[in-house]
Specification:
The structure is a single chain. With 147 residues, the protein is mainly alpha-helical. Helix content is 55%, strand content 4%. The protein has seven helices and two strands, in the order αβααβαααα. The longest helix is centred in the middle third of the chain and has 21 residues, at 87-107.
């Protein structure tokens, strides 16, 4: 016995979809004989037709994803948020700090103009990772003047 139209009517009355309607398997013949809204309301009141409870969101996928993250998955470039500095921007920030440091050393006469020129060309060529790295180079090659 088909209860499709009864389910549709009950869904309309209970303001849910047809998938949320449960019909008692023992009362299918009674439900299939009901054709009016009033009869369907009576069956709902008796408990032969029930609106299924709303289901929550499962945490299973979340737990699995967390385990995969701990194993090192899903951590590529596309999954990262926050500061993403492209190569050119990183270069600009680095070279500005190096050039500023060089000018300060030249103005305080800690390096000679010849050394300044040499070091600025090296910086332009990408020889130094940072201003600290350049300072290390100056110390190891004894380019700093004594006061």
């Amino acid at each position: 016995m088909s209860v499709v139209s009864q389910k549709r009517l009950a869904a309309r009355l209970l303001k849910v979809g047809t998938g949320k309607i449960w019909v008692d398997p023992e009362d299918t013949d009674r439900v299939s004989s009901a054709i009016t809204r009033e009869e369907i309301r009576k069956l709902i009141h008796e408990g032969s037709i029930i609106k299924r409870p709303q289901t929550g969101i499962s945490s299973g996928r979340k737990r699995r994803h967390r385990q995969e993250l701990l194993a090192g998955r899903h951590k590529g470039e596309g999954s990262r948020k926050g500061m993403r500095r492209p190569g050119k921007t990183a270069w600009v920030v680095r070279i500005r700090s190096i050039r500023g440091r060089l000018k300060m050393l030249r103005d305080k006469r800690l390096i000679t103009p010849q050394d300044y020129r040499k070091l600025s060309l090296m910086a332009k060529g990408g020889s130094f990772r940072s201003a600290a790295h350049m300072n290390e180079y100056i110390e190891t090659h004894k380019l700093a003047r004594r006061r």
